[in-house]
Design brief:
The protein folds into two domains: about 300 residues, FAD/NAD(P)-binding domain (3-Layer(bba) Sandwich), CATH 3.50.50.60; about 180 residues, 2-Layer Sandwich (Cholesterol Oxidase, domain 2). With about 550 residues, it is an alpha+beta fold. Helix 1 runs parallel beside helix 13. Strands 1, 2, 11, 12, 13, 14 and 28 form a seven-stranded mixed sheet that branches. The two termini are about 30 Å apart. The chain contains 13 helices and 28 strands. Helices cover about 25% and strands about 25% of the residues.
């Protein structure tokens, strides 16, 4: 296997996350192309807490596997800094996330195509989703059966509380949906998850592990990318450090930046690609003006609605401590099932907040437990209850991510600008009230105790919005900071090539022009698959 210091590679992929791991696996699959994959993290798919689904609680604030970013205070967050966890290990955020698999709505991708991104409409990306999926449910027309990514349904009948939710949701016009990735997203349904036989199915596990023995694939961990190597307007390599020692690697074909919505614009800016005036102010010499780098940041802003539950053994709070936790550990060890083998968000509902909409514009993801902080650590609380993550699906509020200095080790400034769009404010009010309506509907009502948050005393629009500003978090879906398109603020074209720079592409959540309707891990894997397809097609054309 070649090392980065003594070989010229055909391709360098910077970042081994949801998109990057997928890319590196597919680019090296034929054995023809020499591929270098650079990853800043040092852990792989065998990391103990990553393997076990419940281990997400141990990684959400752990700097060994998490970048642990935080946002800049602004009006939309009530002057607070908001935690922005991002995976820092092989598999990236697919190795530390909640494992929910949501592709989004067909309209999400058709909108991308309508914005000038040919080849990204729903009928274009559906075959890519099917190619990566290994899922037993749904229809053959819409779902993949033989892909590397194993997807399963959360068991429906294991938690009685969830059955009550399904019944109550039907009474407020949201019927049960057996496939939230199927023909329609609307309704209440069990989460589809990247969990199989009690094990997290990260891209490190599903894509990289089978590829690690290939002689044409080099994976270098602990590698912090510092700058791209540019010769004129062509990218020819990457400079990076490993344990403080400077290295560089060069390519004969292309560099693909797959460092995510936070680190991808950061690397472009450190390399002199971005807003010239901003770069000069940060001590970086501008090389190529691209005004959109770092702009168009979007995320799902989510207040946590909380209710007490009066019924015993109805939530995970009863099973996550004492002898019951020992029992759960035994169930996991023997059968790979139970609380430890589950996603934290087993059920979710999608709905429309106002008449006239063709598809859902909002969601509530339901965690059948409450959490508390003990000694700075987030744990399952003793009190019995549920948590609802509530958000609008296609946020219109946009912010930015920009470097603070020329130091590659310094985290960039993340400014979300949440709630700056009126539609987002109107939408979140409707979602909070929908959550209250669900909990006040029988048979769920008979199990529901106190409204813990926001609290029944908060009723007016302004009271609820102020509560959102001062308590809401993200649902960890930042996108858009190197957006795809042809307008003045676009960073990449529909082939994901950086405008004006040869030999350089970006492939990760940062290229999304708008948010998808749900969790972003599945779309990121699709982006990695589709980018690999385009890169290999370009190579074949050049060789012809």
């Amino acid at each position: 296997m070649p090392t980065a210091s003594n070989a010229l590679f055909d391709y360098i992929v910077v970042g081994a996350g949801s998109s990057g791991a997928t890319l590196a696996s597919r680019l090296s699959e034929s054995g023809v192309h020499r591929v270098l994959l650079l990853e800043a993290g040092t852990e792989g798919s065998d990391y103990f807490w990553s393997r076990i689904p419940v281990g997400v609680s141990k990684m959400i604030e752990h700097p060994a596997v998490n970048w642990c970013f935080s946002s800049e205070p602004d009006e939309g967050s009530g002057g607070r800094r908001i935690e922005v966890p991002r995976g820092k290990m092989l598999g990236g955020s697919s190795s530390i996330n909640g494992m929910v698999y949501i592709r989004g709505q067909a309209q999400d991708y058709d909108q991308w195509a309508q914005l000038g991104n040919r080849g990204w409409g729903w009928q274009d990306v559906l075959p890519v989703f099917k190619r990566m999926e290994n899922y037993a449910g749904g229809s053959d027309e819409l779902r993949g059966r033989n892909g590397p990514l194993k997807i399963t349904d959360t068991p429906r009948h294991k938690v009685p509380l969830l059955e009550k939710m399904i019944e109550s949701a039907a009474r407020i016009g949201l019927p049960f949906n057996a496939d939230l990735n199927g023909e329609t997203q609307e309704g209440i349904g069990m989460s589809q998850v990247t969990i199989a036989k009690g094990r997290r199915q990260s891209t490190a596990y599903c894509y990289l592990d089978p590829a690690r023995g290939r002689p044409n694939l080099t994976i270098e961990q602990g590698a912090l990318a510092e700058t791209l190597i540019l010769e004129g307007k062509r990218c020819v390599g990457v400079r990076y450090t490993v344990k403080g020692r400077k290295r560089e690697a060069r390519v004969s074909r292309e560099v693909i930046v797959s460092s995510g919505s936070i680190n991808s614009p950061k690397l472009l800016e450190l390399s002199g690609i971005g807003q010239a005036e901003l770069l000069r102010a940060r001590g970086v010499t501008p090389v190529h003006e691209l005004k959109g780098v770092g702009e168009n940041l979007r995320d799902h802003y989510s207040p946590r609605i909380k209710f007490a539950i009066t019924a015993r053994n109805a939530t995970f709070n009863d099973n996550a401590r004492g002898w019951r936790l020992v029992r759960e550990a035994f169930k996991y060890a023997v059968w790979r099932e139970g609380f430890l083998a589950s996603t934290a968000v087993p059920i979710r509902m999608y709905f429309r907040t106002r008449p006239g909409l063709e598809t859902p514009d909002a969601t509530i993801s339901i965690l059948p437990f409450l959490t508390e902080r003990v000694g700075g650590e987030r744990r399952v609380a003793r009190r019995r209850g549920i948590t609802m993550n509530a958000n609008v699906l296609r946020s219109e509020s946009t912010g930015s991510i920009h470097i603070k200095s020329s130091d590659p080790a310094e985290a960039p400034a993340i400014r979300f600008n949440f709630l700056s769009a009126q539609n987002d404010r109107d939408g979140i009010l409707a979602v909070v009230r929908k959550g209250r309506e669900l909990m006040a509907t029988s048979p769920l009502r008979e199990m529901t105790g106190e409204e813990i948050a926001p609290g029944i005393h908060l009723q007016s629009d302004e009271e609820i919005l102020e509560w959102v500003r001062t308590t809401a978090e993200t649902t960890y879906h930042p996108v858009g900071t190197c957006k795809m398109g042809a307008d003045a603020m676009a960073v990449v074209d529909p082939q994901l090539r950086v405008h004006g720079i040869e030999g350089l592409r970006v492939a990760d959540a940062s290229i999304m022009p708008t948010l998808t309707s749900g969790n972003t891990n599945a779309p990121c894997i699709m982006i990695g698959e589709k980018c690999a397809e385009m890169v290999l097609a370009a190579a074949a054309k050049a060789a012809a």
